[in-house]
Protein: Hydrolase
Organism: Streptomyces laurentii
Amino acid sequence: MSQWTVHGSRPVYTSPWVRLELVDVEPPGCARYEHHLIRLAPVAAVVLLDDASNVLLMWRHRFATDTWSWEIPSGIVEDGETSEAAAVREVLEETGYEIQPDDLTPLAYIEPIGGMSDAVHHVYLARNARPVADPVDTHEADRIEWRPLDEVQQMIDDRAIVAGVAVTGLLQLLARRPQ
């Protein structure tokens, strides 16, 4: 299969968080048509692991799916910010824990919906987190808990962890764990 040809695009909706475009595309051997494209800012996420093999999780409600589940700290990489800097900032804002950029180890790079979006997620592992303040983003979680890594696979199976960035990061950590 060959690369699709992009003939142009036009915006349909724009906000600080999302841009919806109609893109004039031509797949190889097919007629041209307009394809929806959702442009999103990059996301940085962090799996925090302590010395006792517990992970820091946030219990929260997502209105779009009307579901409750456990998630890892994550958020948008702001203009001019690196994904590492965003990861450090989001952990502090959402959990009150401080980590250093040197504490970050890449776990995954994800393009979660590549057929419809240019979204990318950078997922890191961090150790040595220390509590330094109350969370600033109090709307992000109803509670924050250290949960045993040994329980994570069952939590995913039970749909207690469903966010794609959290599932990916936690499964990567489980896959890399020494047996």
Observations:
- The chain has two domains: 5-40, 43-176.
